[in-house]
TrEMBL record:
Protein name: EamA family transporter
Keyword Protease: no
Highest taxon listed in the record's lineage: Bacteria
Gene3D superfamilies assigned to the protein according to its UniProt record, in alphabetical order: 1.10.3730.20
Signal peptide: none
EamA domain residues: 22-150, 164-306
Keywords: Membrane, Transmembrane, Transmembrane helix
Taxonomic classification: Bacteria, Bacillati, Actinomycetota, Actinomycetes, Kitasatosporales
Transmembrane segments: 19-38, 50-75, 81-102, 109-128, 134-152, 164-183, 189-215, 227-248, 260-282, 289-307
Pfam family membership, one: EamA
InterPro entries named in the record: EamA_dom, EmrE-like
Keyword Transmembrane recorded: yes
Amino acid sequence: MDCTTVWCTPPFNTLYCEALMTALFALATSLLWGLADFGGGLLTRRTPALTVVVVSQSVAVVVLGAVVVATGGFAEAGPRLWYAAAAGVVGPVAMLSFYKALALGPMGVVSPLGSLGVAVPVGVGLLLGERPGLLQFAGIGVAVAGVVLAGGPELRGAPVQRQAIWLTLVAAFGFGAVMALIAEASTSVTGLFLALFVQRVANVAVGGAALWVSVRRGGRALPAEGGLAVVAASLPALAFVGLADVAANGTYATAAQLGPVTMAAVLANLYPVVTVLAALVLLRERVRAVQAAGAGLALMGTVLLATG
């Protein structure tokens, strides 16, 4: 993608343009992931987590399938799709763990810890030879610290809280792996649509198999109260969660292709700030001083990364 001719006009130079567009696409990713996580965690409080994953991702499969057909994306099939398939296998495990952790809550604690998965794509970027400047290294440290503090981390407490933390750490590693894999899954826009479609098909296959096993073992596929009627009433919200997650993967892959993976990964992982703000506004969760300080640090880290 020629950033100078497609996205910018003079007097912007190519390097500045790439950094700017990387930052914008990565921040769009954080907004979409933050809203998707808030919606998914909220839905999981009434509906089994596996059902939320399978239904939301099934909606995404239908929409992406139509987009791939309309754009001729199947012509882009190639070996890189194995990265998308691998991301599709890892994704449901991460989402299931994260939604369960969010349901145990509070969201303001769980969501920031989930962003620790940024270590995976950042590590991949460094192994591939990326060397951020001094200000960008400082921005990475400040942003990650801010995201963790934005949740007002509470690592002590009842067994349920400890379970939520362990589930979140599993999810964090999985999310980081998905980010690294999806960034390698395509080199063009139509190829990206196909990669996201393959990823979502794998998501549904793995999640559906897990749901079937869960039901066979006595688990529930439908809410204890309301059953299928609750799932049907939640379809718009489930569709939003699935499509927002897909869009976030797409904007992240674009950000990683336009500029340094290290910058894209850290900025994309500001999504917990969005989740915390949504919980504050919609659920009236109280914000502690450490959370407010963390949000400020995350913003400062964003500025350092974008201008470093």
